[in-house]
Every structure is written in C-alpha cells, then in structure tokens.
UniProtKB/TrEMBL annotation, chains A, B:
Function statement: Is involved in the conjugation of reduced glutathione to a wide number of exogenous and endogenous hydrophobic electrophiles.
Native species: Tagetes erecta
Record has Glycoprotein as a keyword: no
Main subcellular localisation: cytoplasm
Organism classification: Eukaryota, Viridiplantae, Streptophyta, Embryophyta, Tracheophyta
Keyword annotations of the record: Cytoplasm, Transferase
PROSITE patterns found in the cross-reference section: GST_CTER (PS50405), GST_NTER (PS50404)
Principal EC category: transferase
Domain GST N-terminal, chain residue ranges per copy: 6-86
Protein name: Glutathione S-transferase
Length: 226, 226
C-alpha cells in the first residue's frame, strides 16, 4: 500500500496503446498523477532519456523519483503498490498466468501484425490481414461468454487490450475489415468497457482522432517508438 | 501453496535457455516433475501442439493437465504456487518491477542480438557484436557489487539470465569475444551460481555440448523455435 504525498509523473505519448494501459490502470485505482506529453516525433525530453536510458521509450512512470518502464510491468507495479482498490489480477495463480500469457500475445502478435496493416502491401499485406483477424478471433475465444477478460470484473488483460480499440478505425480502414460484423463479441466487449468503466471512457482517445494521427503523422514517425 | 499428488510435466528442448529457466526454478523449489524432451528439429509432439496451440513452442509446464506457456510466466507461476520455499521475487514492488524489466531486456535484446552473432556477417555481424557486449555491460552494471542479481539471494533475474551462460562458448566463438577478460564480473557471477546453487550445476548443460549443438545442428534448425 502506498503512503501519502506520492510524487507520480507519467511520461507518455497520447496515441500510444502502451501508455494508455498505464493511464487506465491509474484511473481504475483513482490515483492522481502528473501527465507529461512526450513529443516522440520531434524530439524526446531529457527526462525521458534519463529515466529510460535502455529503451528511450514511453511510457515511463516516475514514482518518487524512481522510473518504472514497460507498460505491463508498470501496470503490475501499480496493482502491487496501490493494492487497496480495484485489484487487476485474480487471486488464482493459473488465472493470473493465463491473463499474462494473453497480454504477452497482444504485445508479440497483435501489435506487430497491426503495424503491418499500414506498413506493407500486396501479399505481405494480405498475410497480415489474415493473421490480424486470427489474433482477434483467438482473443474472442479467450473472452468466451464472460463480460470481461477478467471474468465478472475488469482486469489486467482488459487493461492490456482495450487501448487497441482506439486504433480500430485505423486498423479497419488499412486492413479493409468490418469489425462490427467480423468480431461481434470483441466489439461488444469494447463498448461494455467504455460504457461501464469511467477509467476507460475518460481516458481512451477518439477513434477518429487516432485514425487522423495515423494518416497525417505516419510518414514522419518511426512507429517503433510508440 | 500446492497440494500433494501433483501431476507435473515439462515439455522442453535441452539446449533452450528458456526451458532451462523452468528447470532451474523447479530445482530451486525442489519440485519433482516428469521431463519430456521435444524434438524441435525433426518434429513436435502432438502433446506440445495441443498444449501450446498459439505459439507451438517449448517450454510448456503442464500442471494437473493445464498448460502454462512462456518461460517468464512459468517461472512466476512456479513461484506463486510453490511459495513455501526459495522465493524468487523480492517483497518490495520496485525491486520486483526492476527484476522484471531486466528479464524482459534479456528476452528482447540479449537473445535477439546473441542469435545475430551466428546468423549474420560483415557489418551486421560487427554491429551485433557491439550490441551484444553493450547488453552484457548493462547487465553487469545492474549486478553491481551484489553476489546475485537478487541481492544476497538467487532470484528471478538470476534464473532468467544464468541459462544464457550455457551458450557462452558459442557466443564467444562466433562473436570473437573473450568474456573472462571483457566481462569479469558477469563471469564471476555465473561461476558463483554454478558453485553455490545445485539447482544450476545439476541442470545447466555443458558449454561445449551446447557449442557442438550450435555447430552441428544449426543449419537444420529454425532457431526461432527454441
């Protein structure tokens, strides 16, 4: 449990699905913090370079002067330190391992395949379309008939995946998908999160704003840095 | 805490540094299990395909019929379930996040760069040599003057890194390094682990055996599957 008088700073970049995970976790716990936007396109702050010298990436959570990096690790840290409210992990070790497995799958497969939707053409694009849809189908299977990935309550895997919903207009357009028809369950889940969880609705950027960002800024921006 | 009469099966591949993490964690906890060698070169077992349909990779720990995949997640699961002996994580949330950050760094950087030492030539090889040494230097810095990455006790980051030592003869040869001279602290740490921890000395394969494997089998083997 954290003590009072915390100094909490988040270095982030608004369209980042990884940063959004941290913003949602902090909102779930009701933790106040200072948000500092990083301009990853035009130049990173000295503070970011000092706080994450290894990867030089956002998000970085600075808690009383000490940096925590990598979104999954940050969300788990938040859950450990502020453990008096809205637990993100189940008590059961197997369910915990399973949530981590799928969050890892999102990082390794969904993110990488999603990028290819707007960075490849021809056969490679077609392959990435199929792979992306397969990823979503596997995630739908994992969701099953539960309201949330965390079961009755919004948990770690929900926090890990819901930020990607803000990129869905971009994915849909570049991948020529119709998610409403092709992934009914997943879209219903995303809308449930937005409808029921203020931590999501108050935090997640508008899909069209993210789409406009992808369209306008993509050429300038090395997406690897998001 | 686990109950008695567990059924515990590990699907693994002997030179895999990821599988070795699991074998070391199980040995640290003194947990008996059935080891099943997978022949990743000539064909994967149906059990592996059934237990890890998403990635089709070893290691997989099957605990009372339920699969746990991805080495870091498995080691953490083992630590959660068998929590009565040899804790692998510190109690402090920041130290825990830090151990996870560096284990993630090993997966993302050290492993990938290490592969390039024997899969690239020319400028790319030279760049990977420099990057590999930089990775080791960062890890040495993280170790500092502590006997283990876990401080006074052997912990999660030690478990995550020590398996790579079994590949050091291969890395050294293909990268033209002299680790004894270039990474004195890290080599001293590796020897300390082997000398003091039976979980390591009884588990880790001989460096020359791994080197012979890399030499002989590499052409046949898609290393991505390790």
């Amino acid at each position: 449990m954290a003590t009072e008088h915390e100094e909490l700073i988040l270095l982030d970049f608004w369209p980042s699905m990884y940063g959004l995970r941290v913003r949602i976790a902090l909102a779930e716990k009701g933790i106040p913090y200072e948000y500092r936007e990083e301009d990853l396109i035009r130049g990173k702050s000295q503070l970011l370079l000092d706080m994450n010298p290894t990867h030089k990436k956002t998000p970085v959570l600075i808690h009383n002067g000490r940096p925590i990096c990598e979104s999954g690790i940050i969300v788990e840290y938040i859950d450990n330190v502020w453990n008096d409210k809205a637990p993100l992990f189940p008590y059961d070790s197997y369910a915990k391992a399973r949530a981590k497995f799928w969050a890892d799958f999102i990082d390794k497969k969904l993110y990488q395949t999603g990028r290819k939707l707007y960075t490849t053409k021809g056969e490679e694009h077609e392959a990435s379309r199929n792979e992306f849809m397969q990823c979503l189908k596997l995630l739908e299977e994992e969701l099953g008939d539960k309201p949330y990935f965390g079961g009755e309550s919004f948990g770690y895997l929900d926090v890990s995946l819901i930020p990607f919903y803000s990129w869905f207009q971009a994915y849909e357009t570049y991948g020529n998908f119709n998610f409403e028809h092709e992934c009914t369950k997943l879209i219903a889940w995303a809308k449930r999160c937005i409808h029921n969880k203020e931590s999501v609705s108050n935090t997640i950027p508008d899909l069209s704003k993210v789409f406009a960002f992808v369209q306008k800024e993509f050429a300038l921006f090395d997406i690897k840095n998001t």
